[in-house]
Structure formats: structure tokens, C-alpha cells
Specification:
The structure is a single chain. The chain has two domains: about 5-160, Ribonuclease H-like superfamily/Ribonuclease H (Nucleotidyltransferase, domain 5); about 175-225, no CATH class. The chain is about 40% helix and about 20% strand. It contains seven helices and eight strands. Strands 1-4-3-2-5-6 form a six-stranded mixed beta sheet. It is elongated, with a radius of gyration of 20 Å.
């Protein structure tokens, strides 16, 4: 399954439905990349929307159910670690965005995507117009709402993964390259959730195969220099 969606009950179709799209999880070393698409009800603005990265975790968690309850429609799409390895992270992100858009039960007429490029809109009902908006998560309410849904959905997912791989600390860092995560990756090697092809993951995988030691230096994993033996 690659998407999750909802339409507001009793919705009366807006003449022009604008969808905002954003992603969460491009930067981490582990886990899926997740995208959300949201169509807000223009007559019912939601206060407090902003880029999810600028909101405290508690505020994101407060807003997410409100967005889901009060939006016209919303959908979640994602791409897993195998797709990230095959397509690269940009391609996988655009795929997750496309899946979120395809999951909307109400076809938008105008799509605004955070960043500098849009996913493929081929095959979407109604031939919507796409627009990339740099920093749109801070200026377009629909994109802000999508940012919050994508971030909270992925965070919850990574907390579930923490139960499967408890030694890596996914519940705390959500897969990002924190010192805690790098230290665990260096000592344990990668798990199936890690993104092959990302430099720290490759370093840890090679070290695990060769028996080399890796250490955390300036938020990077590097091989430790071998000890010299005096004659």
C-alpha cells in the first residue's frame, strides 16, 4: 500500500479545488519518504498553519487531527527504502508526491508543490495545473497543512519502526543523522530500514563486512585509523 486518504463527509464540491503538496523525510538515513496532499475548505481557515519544521512537535500533533477533520480531502503517499535506492531520493520523493495526489478522492484543479519542481501529473483527473512554490510551506496554507500531515505521519511510522529495531533510537531521531544514530549505525551496521547508497550507511555496511572500526567525526562516519605497533 502506498497511500492513505480521506474525504470530508457531506462535502459539496468547490468550483476550484487547490491542493497543496509537501514531503517529509528526504534527508534521513533510514525510513521511507512520505508526502501529503491536502485540499482545504476555503470557508473554514485553520489558524496556526506553518512549515512543520518551524512548529514544535506538540503543535504539529495538535494541528494534524484538525487538518484531517476540517479539510475537504487529504491523502498520504510514500516511497520505501527499495524505491529510494532504485530511483534516488529525488525520484522517490516525486513518486511519493504523485501517489498522494492520486490518492485524493476529489480531483484538484490547481496543485501547488513545495520546492522547485512538481511530480508528474500525467493521468490525474481533470488535467490540473501544477505550480512549484519555493518555501511554499511557509506561505501557502494548503502546503503548510500537507507539510504537517506528512511530518506527523512519518514521525509516528518511525516510532513504530523503533519497536522492530529498538537499538537504533528511531523514535528519538526519526532516522536523521544525529550523533546517537551515527554511533548506533557505526557499531551495529545497517538494518533493513537504512537507505543504501547514502554515504554513512555505505560506510557502516563496508565496515561491518571488513571488520573495520568506524567513529563519528563532525556528524559523519569515518573509518578509524589503524593502531600503529611499535617495534
Amino acid at each position: 500500500m502506498s497511500n492513505l486518504s480521506r474525504t470530508a463527509p457531506g462535502h459539496r464540491r468547490q468550483s476550484a479545488a487547490r491542493a497543496g503538496v509537501d514531503e517529509a523525510g528526504r534527508g534521513p538515513l533510514a525510513g521511507p519518504v512520505v508526502a501529503a496532499a491536502v485540499i482545504l475548505r476555503r470557508s473554514d481557515p485553520i489558524a496556526g498553519l506553518d512549515d512543520s519544521k518551524l512548529l514544535a512537535p506538540g503543535e504539529r500533533e495538535r494541528l494534524a487531527p484538525e487538518i484531517r477533520a476540517r479539510s475537504v480531502a487529504w491523502a498520504i503517499g510514500w516511497a520505501d527504502v527499495e524505491e529510494i535506492a532504485t530511483l534516488n531520493i529525488l525520484g522517490a520523493t516525486l513518486l511519493a508526491m504523485r501517489r498522494a495526489l492520486l490518492g485524493l478522492s476529489i480531483p484538484p484543479t490547481h496543485i501547488q508543490v513545495d520546492g522547485d519542481r512538481c511530480p508528474s501529473l500525467a493521468g490525474l483527473a481533470g488535467q490540473p495545473r501544477g505550480e512549484a512554490v519555493v518555501r511554499g510551506d511557509q506561505t501557502v496554507p494548503e502546503i503548510s497543512a500537507a507539510s504537517i500531515l506528512a511530518k506527523t505521519y512519518r514521525d509516528h511510522w518511525m516510532m513504530e519502526f523503533d519497536r522492530v529495531y529498538p537499538s537504533y533510537g528511531f523514535a528519538a531521531h526519526k532516522g536523521y543523522a544525529t550523533p546517537q544514530h551515527l554511533a548506533a549505525l557505526g557499531s551495529l551496521g545497517p538494518c533493513p530500514l537504512h537507505r543504501r547508497g547514502f554515504s554513512p550507511v555505505e560506510c557502516a555496511a563496508e565496515a561491518a563486512l571488513s571488520g573495520a572500526t568506524v567513529v563519528v567525526v563532525d556528524r559523519r562516519l569515518v573509518r578509524a585509523a589503524p593502531r600503529s605497533h611499535s617495534a
